């Protein structure tokens, strides 16, 4: 039972345009969400997070939106750059659990 | 130098062999984790440890064991490797920062394991 889902395995976007990566979850107990970025031959690196008391968190070119009623979050990258080409994982955590459930990942390719 | 290191980076072994993957960290974090990544399945938690005396099973612990030798070292063992344990394995660490939110995890570079 996949509690955190990333339904798009891959996404291609032109440089300078917006990239939107989506993530859906099924467990309403999740209250903290993160995005990680992974380059080939490297481990995932933390990108941005959001707690359930917010519906938006912004860090430079990266913004995460949370829609609790829809159990959906999205990561927006504006403007997209070729260096953003990577696999992006969303992850969700419950209060006090101190561990995450990861999605299956979306491979983003930004075309120059 | 990397904060979280994993050895070996690549390993090919045969069915039935015992194998150990090692993880070391210099971040001073108490919490350490082992994940595996499979195509189409994302990252799944195998074991985690909140301190040297605390070991917990994750989602997919069958066929694996761990040892927390010190705060900085956390090893994953496959007692008798089988082909469906072929995967990319990641170690991660985190530090307790609050009583509410999960901690940010820092990942090692991964070990690619192939079981023939």
Count of runs of 4 or more consecutive helical residues of chain B: 0
Strand content of chain A: over 45%
Element order of chain B: H for helix, E for strand? EEEEEEEEEEE
Residue-averaged pLDDT of chain A: 93
Low-confidence runs of chain A (pLDDT<50, min 5 residues)?
Answer: none
Oligomer: heterodimer
Separation, N- and C-terminal Cα atoms of chain A:
38 Å
Would you count the extended β strands of chain A for me? 11
Count of helical stretches of chain A: 0
Number of DSSP strands of chain B? 11
For the largest beta-sheet of chain A, the strand count, sense and barrel status come to: 6 strands, mixed
Q: Report the mean per-residue pLDDT of chain B as an integer.
A: 91
Roughly how many Å is the radius of gyration of chain A? 13 Å
> Approximately what portion of the residues of chain B adopt beta-strand conformation?
over 45%
Largest interface: A-B, 28 and 29 residues
- Share in helix of chain A: under 10%
Shape of chain B: globular
- Based on helices, strands and strand pairing, what is the structural class of chain B? mainly beta
Note down, in words, how this protein is organized.
The complex is a heterodimer of chains A (112) and B (116). With 112 residues, chain A is an all-beta fold. In chain A, 0% of the residues lie in helices and 54% in strands. In chain A, the strands form two sheets. In chain A, strands 2, 4, 5, 9, 10 and 11 form a six-stranded mixed sheet that branches. Chain A has a five-stranded antiparallel sheet with strand order 1-3-8-7-6, with no helix packed on it. Chain A is globular, with a radius of gyration of 13 Å. The mean pLDDT of chain A is 93. Chain B has strands at residues 4-7, 10-13, 19-25, 31-38, 42-51, 54-57, 64-70, 73-78, 87-94, 106-107, 111-115. With 116 residues, chain B is mainly β. Chain B has no helices and eleven strands. Chain B starts with a strand and ends with a strand. The model of chain B has no long low-confidence stretch (mean pLDDT 91). The chains are: A mainly beta (112), B mainly beta (116). The interface between A and B is medium-sized, with 28 and 29 residues.
């Amino acid at each position: 039972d996949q509690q955190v889902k990333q339904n798009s395995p891959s996404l291609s976007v032109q440089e300078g345009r917006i990239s939107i990566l989506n993530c859906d979850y099924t467990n309403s107990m999740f209250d903290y969400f993160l995005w990680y970025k992974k380059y080939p031959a490297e481990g995932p690196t933390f990108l941005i997070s959001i707690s359930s008391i917010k519906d938006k968190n912004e860090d430079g070119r990266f913004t995460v939106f949370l829609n609790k009623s829809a159990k959906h979050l999205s990561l927006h990258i504006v403007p997209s750059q070729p260096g953003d080409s990577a696999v992006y994982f969303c992850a969700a955590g419950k209060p006090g659990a101190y561990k995450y459930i990861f999605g299956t990942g979306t491979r983003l390719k930004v075309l120059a | 130098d990397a904060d979280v290191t994993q050895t070996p980076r690549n390993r090919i072994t045969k069915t039935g062999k015992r194998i150990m993957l090692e993880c070391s960290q210099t971040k001073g974090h108490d919490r350490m984790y082992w994940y595996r990544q499979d195509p189409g399945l994302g990252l799944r938690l195998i074991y985690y440890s909140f301190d040297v005396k605390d070991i917990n099973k994750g989602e997919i612990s069958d066929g694996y064991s761990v040892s927390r030798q010190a705060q900085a070292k956390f090893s994953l063992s496959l007692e008798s490797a089988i082909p469906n344990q072929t995967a990319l394995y990641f170690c991660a660490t985190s530090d307790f920062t609050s009583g509410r939110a999960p901690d940010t995890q820092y990942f090692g570079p991964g070990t690619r394991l192939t079981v023939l």
